[in-house]
Specification:
Blueprint: H1 2-29, H2 31-39, H3 44-49, E1 63-72, E2 75-85
Antiparallel strand pairs: 1-2
């Protein structure tokens, strides 16, 4: 019985760390990130009601997102998020 409680506590601790990190990143990103998530219909009410949008193969917005990475001498020196409007949804 102790091993079950230990495993459950470990999984709960892991989930708590993920929630804290996500919350911190959203707070640091500011209100624009929160409004962007709400536009994508990922609000609190959608989480509570189970009405999150279905995930598909492609994006659900008319915007392409990606990551640009720069390396020097085989080492990663810079990473930034890129975003560009597109006429097609893939």
């Amino acid at each position: 019985m102790d091993i079950v409680a230990t495993i459950a506590a470990t999984l709960l601790g892991f989930a708590s760390v993920i929630v804290v990190i996500v919350t911190y990143r959203v707070i640091v990103a500011g209100p624009s990130k929160v409004s962007q998530l709400r536009r994508k219909r990922y609000g609190l009410s959608a989480w509570v009601s189970g009405g999150l949008p279905k995930t598909g193969i492609g994006t659900t917005v008319h915007e392409l997102e990606g990551i640009e990475m720069k390396a020097r001498n085989g080492r990663l020196v810079a990473v930034r998020q890129t975003r560009a409007p597109t006429s097609t949804v893939r």
